[in-house]
Amino acid sequence: MLLYTPRLSSCEGLLGSVLRRLNWTECYLNDAPENQPDSRPECISCGYLLHGLTRQVCPECGQPFDEKDPRTFRVRGTESGSLEWAMPPSKFEVAIPPFFAGIYIFGNSFPGGAMEWLGFEAIGVFVIGVMLLGYAVFRFAGRISDIRSHRDLIARGLRLPENRRRWRWFVLPVCLGIFLSVCLTDWPLRSRFEMSRAAFEQVLSQTTPSDVEISVNRRIGFYGVRSIRLDPSGHAIIQTGMSRFKSVGFCFRPKHGPIPSHLKFTPNWFAKQF
What we know:
Oligomer: single chain
Radius of gyration: 32 Å
Number of domains: 3
Number of helices: 7
Largest sheet: 6 strands, antiparallel
Distance between the termini: 80 Å
């Protein structure tokens, strides 16, 4: 059984008319000449408009171009058909590797690694870092590939923009080398410990030997220390934090003591989990 609802139909008709008028107005405004995108060619180096020139050389910076080859100029408002990919990495691409390299170095300067510093949030930072570094590597490889594909243009005198700094090419390889060096040598942890070693030994020399753990909760050297335990045999434990629900820190053993199987800094100092 069909129900006739004239009021609803009228509303639908009025609404449809308004929507059609709005759509027509939007299309009219979009088709207006002043709202059309500027598709005139410009210099890939300085952005000078190349429209209407008699010579195929930018009068502003001297960059040559070929009006029949869209790779030699840039259409205003777009990056397609230009040498954008063949230029050094952008500021964002350059900022990603040093930022995460700094986080990686600082996180690995703790005895418990980044988990001691950030807790389980370190997993999220690791995932985001891998994704952004993968993006930076992909863009870097794409730019290298694009330079190889534009060898013929470069041989004909086409120059890359001079306002893009060449040192940006070295940022990603240097940071990848830093990541590899940290994985192989643990130098952030060793360096930070060496800068704190004198402070640790001074505190131990002022501590009374006891089998009871002493709460400290203050900064010693370049580490925040939670507690210290120095037993009568000379064995000392300096706890700096927690990592994966385990206490971590540094261990001091006298020369006549047993050698634990942990990361060794000197004949007496080790980093360990307790």
